[in-house]
C-alpha cells in the first residue's frame, strides 16, 4: 500500500554501460537500431542487469553479446538515474578497454570512435547526457 503510493519507485531498471576507450584516448559510441527502444539514439553499449548478476559481470556479458569483444573494467563512474515517460533507468557506467577481439555490431546500427570533445554533438539517449558530461569534465580535470 505504502509503496503503491509512490509510483516513481516502480519500474526502476538497472542498466550498465561501457565507456570504451582505445589506445588513442578515443571513446566508443553506439547508435541504437531503428527497431530498438529509443530508436537511432546514441548510447554506450551495455544492458539490463539480470537477477543475481553483479553490475560488472553484466557489463562484460553484454559487451560480448553486442560487440563480440572482451573488455576489462578500469573505473566505475557515478550512477545516473533518469526518468523516461514510462520507466526510470539507473544507468551504471564503467570506463573500459578492449582486451581481445575486433568489434562486430550484433545489435546496433552504427558506431563511432570520438574524441571526448566531439561526444556531445551526438543525439544521445537522454539518460546518457549527464554521463557524457561527467566523463568530459572528469577527463578535463585529471
Ligand atoms: N545499453 C544501454 N541502454 C541505455 C543507455 N541509455 C539508456 O537510456 N538506455 C536504456 C535503453 C533501454 O531502455 C535500457 C537498456 O536496455 P537494453 O540495452 O537491454 O535494451 P533493450 O533493447 O533490451 O531494451 P528494451 O527495448 O527491452 O527496452 O536502457 C545506454 O547508454 N546503454
Kindly describe this structure.
This protein has 142 residues and is an alpha+beta fold. The protein has a single domain, classed as Nucleoside Triphosphate Pyrophosphohydrolase, CATH 3.90.79. Helices cover 20% and strands 34% of the residues. The chain has two helices and eight strands, in the order E-E-E-E-H-E-E-E-E-H. Strands 1, 4, 5, 6 and 7 form a five-stranded mixed beta sheet that branches. The chain has a three-stranded antiparallel beta sheet with strand order 3-2-8, with no helix packed on it. A hairpin with a 4-residue loop joins strand 6 and strand 7 (88-100). The protein is globular. The model has no long low-confidence stretch (mean pLDDT 94). 8-OXO-2'-deoxyguanosine-5'-triphosphate binds next to strand 1, strand 4, strand 7 and helix 2.
Topology diagram in text:
Blueprint: E1 12-20, E2 27-31, E3 42-43, E4 46-48, H1 55-67, E5 70-76, E6 80-83, E7 88-100, E8 110-114, H2 126-141
Parallel strand pairs: 1-7
Antiparallel strand pairs: 1-4, 2-3, 2-8, 5-7, 6-7
Q: Could you state the order of secondary-structure elements as H and E?
A: EEEEHEEEEH
Report low-confidence residues grouped into runs of 5 or more: none
Biggest sheet layout: 5 strands, mixed
Domain module count: 1
Derived structural class: alpha+beta
Q: CATH topology, which one?
A: Nucleoside Triphosphate Pyrophosphohydrolase
- Count of helix runs: 2
Distance between the termini: 47 Å
CATH evolutionary superfamily:
Nucleoside Triphosphate Pyrophosphohydrolase
Beta-strand percent range: 25-35%
The CATH architecture name reads Alpha-Beta Complex
**Over the alpha carbons, how many angstroms does the gyration radius reach?**
15 Å
Ligands, deduplicated: 8-OXO-2'-deoxyguanosine-5'-triphosphate
Instruction: Tell me the number of strands.
Output: 8
Mean pLDDT: 94
Domain Nudix hydrolase: 10-137
EC number: 3.6.1.55
GO molecular function: 8-oxo-7,8-dihydrodeoxyguanosine triphosphate pyrophosphatase activity; 8-oxo-7,8-dihydroguanosine triphosphate pyrophosphatase activity; 8-oxo-dGDP phosphatase activity; 8-oxo-GDP phosphatase activity; metal ion binding
Catalytic activity: 8-oxo-dGTP + H2O = 8-oxo-dGMP + diphosphate + H(+); 8-oxo-GTP + H2O = 8-oxo-GMP + diphosphate + H(+)
